[in-house]
Amino acid sequence: MACQGPMKMGYHGVLRLILPLVLLFLFLYMSITKLPGVYLHECIQDGKPCSQIQNDVIEEVKVEPSTSFKLDPSDVQLLEDVLKNCKQHEFQIGRMVEAFRFCVTEKKDILLEEYLTAWRQLIKFMDALGAVFTFISSEAMTKVNILQGYLNGEHGKHYRTVTSMVKYELENEVVNFKELPPNHVPSGCRTLLRLHRALKFLEVFLYNLGMSVGRDKTSEMCADAYRKTLSHHHSWLIRQVAEVAFLALPPLEDMYKVVCVSHHKEAKIVLLTTVDDIVKVYNITQEVYTEHGMLDLP
Ligand SMILES: CCCCCCCCCCCCC/C=C/[C@@H](O)[C@H](COP(=O)(O)O)NC(=O)CCCCCCCCCCCCCCC
């Protein structure tokens, strides 16, 4: 009885075994193609990196949830309780929401330190999902570390907010609009742009989760969000890796547990409030990047 052969593993068991292997191979492949100074988008066409050519035709995806979510007064207490009482988890949605909220200044700018705090919470969430997502979380962590490096560095005071970073990097020609030079730490602006694009994915994914009435699969909601947003900026290979990873997402009920909600009504309140805060951060950053023509940085 104790010995369960492969035949008894079931669909999910097999998936758990195979997915990490597939991802490991893809990860190794990508590690090789992305050795220091060698970037995937060194594929050149018409004198431009291929990724840039692709981005030229992509317009900003307009998705539904960019409207403010209105809470009933009775829901406000419920929301506060959920956000406060979720202390037993490594990932705390309350701390993430707080950080996204605190990073918006009165002058409608974004504080980078708080922005990165919110991202660190997201990374904890992905790490909690298991080995399949480590590849994605470590990619996000790399971007967070680059920005933190600038914040802690010699010119750290210029990296306090998104606007000050953009101003400093443009004035000092840190931003490269044509290519990503090998053997250089990427600029703060292009690094933040990667996280900023991922934030749109997160917005749509959380919206899908919040609007679900419990029947939908998390993998489908995640894939839908990804296809509408972040996938437009990814190579074919990365898109395949992402699609495989989505299959390993836990079911909705387990996802609810991680965000400390127990039923659909709670989930809707918590997730759509989170979306609302993310939208504010996203829109401010988007405006700054649009103003400086920096939405397609290679
Ligand atoms: C719930 C978990 C959902 C997992 C979501 C998967 C999102 C999509 C897959 C991303 C693949 C990342 C692989 C690498 C991509 C890079 O090529 C690419 C470009 O970088 P480069 O220009 O320097 O080369 N990098 C990026 O686009 C940065 C992507 C960072 C991905 C962060 C995804 C955040 C998702 C957070 C979900 C958390 C849900 C929380 C629910 C409460």
TrEMBL record:
PANTHER family: GLYCOLIPID TRANSFER PROTEIN DOMAIN-CONTAINING PROTEIN 2, GLYCOLIPID TRANSFER PROTEIN-RELATED. One of its GO terms (molecular function) is ceramide 1-phosphate transfer activity. Keywords: Golgi apparatus, Lipid transport, Lipid-binding, Transport. Residues 110-260 form the Glycolipid transfer protein domain. The keyword Transcription regulation does not apply. It comes from Xenopus laevis (African clawed frog). It holds the Pfam family GLTP. Mediates the intracellular transfer of ceramide-1-phosphate (C1P) between organelle membranes and the cell membrane. Required for normal structure of the Golgi stacks. Can bind phosphoceramides with a variety of aliphatic chains, but has a preference for lipids with saturated C16:0 or monounsaturated C18:1 aliphatic chains, and is inefficient with phosphoceramides containing lignoceryl (C24:0). Plays a role in the regulation of the cellular levels of ceramide-1-phosphate, and thereby contributes to the regulation of phospholipase PLA2G4A activity and the release of arachidonic acid. It is a peripheral membrane protein. GO terms for biological process: ceramide transport; intermembrane lipid transfer; negative regulation of interleukin-1 beta production. GO terms for cellular component: cytosol; endosome membrane; Golgi apparatus; nuclear outer membrane; plasma membrane. It is found in: Cell membrane; Endosome membrane; Golgi apparatus, trans-Golgi network membrane; Nucleus outer membrane. Its main location: membrane. This is Ceramide-1-phosphate transfer protein. It catalyses: N-(9Z-octadecenoyl)-sphing-4-enine-1-phosphate(in) = N-(9Z-octadecenoyl)-sphing-4-enine-1-phosphate(out); N-(hexadecanoyl)-sphing-4-enine-1-phosphate(in) = N-(hexadecanoyl)-sphing-4-enine-1-phosphate(out). InterPro entries: GLTP_sf, Glycolipid_transfer_prot_dom. Belongs to the GLTP family.
